[in-house]
Write a structure and sequence with these properties.
Radius of gyration: 29 Å
Largest sheet: 2 strands, antiparallel
Number of strands: 2
Helix content: over 70%
Order of helices and strands: HHHHHHHEEHHHHH
Distance between the termini: 29 Å
Length: 407
């Protein structure tokens, strides 16, 4: 895509220079603006892939250090537990959402730069000046159209992550025989599993919120929290053998708790680095805008911007007009990523999971009495409650009813 639009821009520029036809000259800024927007989208998505690969290489030693021991059974090796059902081709919903948001943040700055360039450098009646005005109109119309037509822009991303997390949660609920699987035989648990997975695969945003609750609703509408049910029912949801219970506890510790701790640690570090870069960029843009504004004020006071200003004066005027929108663009992108709030949420969840990990290790090291299976199931509900609460906070942080146009 990037190569194609670059070739189209080069051909259009050559036609405008060689032929001098008004239609090519007037439309040249419009074609240039389209090239910039396509290049921005492609550049962000390509940079995103490159950054992901770089992070994977950088974090490989830490991920390998947290890898489960070879003797620990995988969750899908247990009876009745299935991997996530195959679906459509995976789509980077987060990348699409952020690419659109970044484009919207850039549009106002580009529109101001087009108008300023036409005012400072070009004749008002020239074909090229008219082209810059048309390019500005295209940018503003594109911005308004995108904002109006992109209602609930984060919903595909939010729905995709919530569904993926709930599929993963279902596997560990079945592993520990808690929640809807408490006290059921293997055959009954398989039937409940199939019904819940089918419902989850077809669930919309509203039904996903209901599905995420850690409780069962009775015929009378009363809620029965899973945490209470574990101790009220006190059945043999897990196999009676101590060895089987211990094995499931170790699987849950390594494949659920420790992996989630690692995920939140790495995610928080990524968000903190992103926030640091965006914050420094915004501060640099503000300082540059102040410096250029002072320089432009000096030029105006000295009277060096007369009817025929110098090239230096024209460039300073262009920067003085364009840098404030660039500052606003940097702040809009910073708000789009919400990295600071996400990092705080991830750090808090990680700390809670570390406390649960300590409790689970204590259960494994303690005596295998009659209540250990119940204590394990109760702990599983608390862990899943922590992860569900993180998912709720994350949705509140990233969900948007519409894009901020950055006006």
């Amino acid at each position: 895509m990037a190569v194609g639009v670059s070739l189209a821009l080069s051909a259009w520029t050559a036609a405008a220079v060689l032929s001098g036809a008004p239609v090519f000259v007037v439309s040249l800024p419009v074609v240039g603006v389209i090239w910039l927007l396509v290049l921005l989208d492609c550049g962000y998505l390509l940079g995103r892939r490159w950054a992901h690969r770089r992070r994977r290489r950088a974090t490989r030693p830490r991920r390998e250090a947290w890898a489960p021991a070879p003797g620990i059974r995988r969750p899908i090796d247990y009876p009745n537990i299935l991997p996530r059902p195959a679906g459509d081709t995976p789509v980077d919903q987060q990348g699409r959402y952020r690419a659109t948001g970044i484009r919207l943040a850039v549009l106002p700055a580009l529109a101001v730069m087009c108008l300023t360039a036409q005012t400072v450098f070009l004749e008002h009646g020239g074909d090229l000046g008219l082209g810059f005005v048309l390019a500005e109109c295209l940018l503003l119309v594109s911005m308004v159209w995108t904002v109006w037509t992109s209602q609930e822009p984060s919903q595909p991303w939010v729905t995709s992550r919530i569904r993926a997390e709930l599929f993963r949660r279902e596997m560990f609920l079945l592993l520990a025989a808690v929640g809807p699987y408490l006290g059921r035989t293997d055959e009954e648990a398989g039937q409940v599993r199939d019904a819940r997975l089918s419902r989850l695969a077809a669930a919309g945003p509203a039904e996903l919120g209901t599905f995420a609750r850690l409780s069962d609703r009775g015929p009378d509408g009363a809620e029965s929290p899973w945490q209470d049910t574990v101790w009220l029912q006190r059945d043999n949801g897990l196999p009676d053998t101590t060895a089987e219970t211990t094995e499931r506890m170790r699987t849950y510790l390594d494949y659920r708790v420790k992996r989630q701790v690692l995920f939140f640690e790495l995610a928080a570090g990524t968000c903190e680095r992103t926030e640091d870069r965006l914050g420094r960029t915004a501060k640099a843009a503000v300082l540059a805008a102040v410096a250029v504004a002072v320089a432009y004020a000096v030029l105006l006071h000295s009277g060096r911007t007369g009817d025929d200003p110098s090239t230096t004066s024209a460039v300073i005027a262009l920067l003085a007009a364009g840098l404030p929108p660039l500052c606003n663009m940097a702040l809009a992108v910073q708000n789009l990523f919400a990295s600071q709030r996400l990092a705080a949420s991830y750090r808090e969840t990680r700390q809670e999971l570390l406390e649960h990990e300590h409790t689970l290790r204590g259960l494994l090291a303690g005596p295998a009495d009659a209540e250990r299976a119940d204590r394990f199931r109760s702990l599983v509900v608390r862990v899943e409650s922590t992860l569900t609460e993180e998912l709720r906070r994350w949705r509140i942080i990233v969900a948007k009813s519409e894009f901020d146009a950055g006006l």
